[in-house]
Amino acid sequence: MTPSYAVIGNPIEHSRSPLIHRAFARQLGIELIYDRLWAPIDGFAEAVAAFREHGGRGMNVTVPFKLEAYDLAEQRSERADRALAANTLVFPDSTSDPVLADNTDGVGLINDLAFHGVTLTGSRVLILGAGGATRGVLAPLLDQGPQEILIANRNPDRAYGLVEEFNDTAGACRLHGCPLEGIEDTRFDVVINATPASLSAQLPPLPDTLIGDRTLAYDMAYGPGPTVFMSWAEARGAVRTLDGMGMLVEQAAESFLLWHGQRPDTAPVRNLLRDDIRRTTEAADTD
């Protein structure tokens, strides 16, 4: 029987995970089935159990189920434990054996930065947002040895909470938080937008002084062109802007490695995904 995999979420129609994983499989000569799986908000565990009963071997997990995926698993990786959330489930052959939960979001971000030649050692990093996206990447970012990470959030208590939780593993990095309106009047080496604002073409309230001619602006959102945040940063002199499409491909590659024991080449799949996004957008514009 051909091994079956899926990405589960609600909504799920927009997910490009099937395109990515099928491309990885073709590249490495691996036979698999990979589909989207919609689950009702209150039916995640039941959907996972049914998928396993029909021979499912693994799942990617997207919103709003990452916390439930973590809670469902009997075994959890260190990455999942540090994030308290999972975006990848690994199912053993027997339905009676424990499910493994992992979180590949953080390594996806780090590998995307490395793909573009970006290192964080000794750098000053600003993260916009203190939600699940930030939680998922904070530990891997700290592992890179930055000089400072500032977490800014509309509700500063959430930022302070993350700082308190992760401070014991921050090492020499100065990890601190503040409200969005209270960001230091200074420039950062890397500014990461981990808010959902770009998905609705919005921009968080940000001072122009954040961006300098050595600043990398990174938006976890992605689309057919630059996001509002990327355009804002570029207009203020950012040396480089990147969107989250590469992070999506890299976190998928890490999941693929967990399931199949082989790491695919992400470069051609990045190009494939970018072309697919462009074609989809052009087709929608002509409707």
The number of domains = 2
For this entry, what is the oligomeric state of its chains? Answer: single chain
* Second-tier CATH architecture of the largest domain: 3-Layer(aba) Sandwich
Count of individual helical segments: 10
Terminal residue distance: 40 Å
Structural class: alpha/beta
Major beta sheet summary: 6 strands, mixed
Radius of gyration, whole Å: 19 Å
Based on DSSP secondary structure assignment, what is the total number of beta strands?
12
Query: What is the CATH T-level topology of the largest domain?
Result: Rossmann fold
Percentage of residues in strands: 15-25%
Task: Describe the 3D structure.
By secondary structure, the chain is an alpha/beta fold. It has two domains: 4-103, Leucine Dehydrogenase, chain A, domain 1 (Rossmann fold); 106-245, Rossmann fold (3-Layer(aba) Sandwich). The protein contains ten helices and twelve strands. The protein has helices at residues 17-28, 44-53, 66-72, 78-83, 105-115, 132-143, 156-166, 228-235, 245-260, 267-286, and strands at 4-9, 33-38, 56-61, 75-76, 88-90, 100-102, 124-128, 148-153, 174-179, 190-193, 216-219, 240-242. Strand 8, helix 7 and strand 9 form a beta-alpha-beta unit. Helix 1 crosses helix 9, helix 5 (105-115) packs across helix 6 and helix 5 crosses helix 9. The longest helix has 20 residues, at 267-286. The protein is globular. The model has no long low-confidence stretch (mean pLDDT 94).
Summarize this structure briefly.
The protein is built from ten helices and twelve strands.
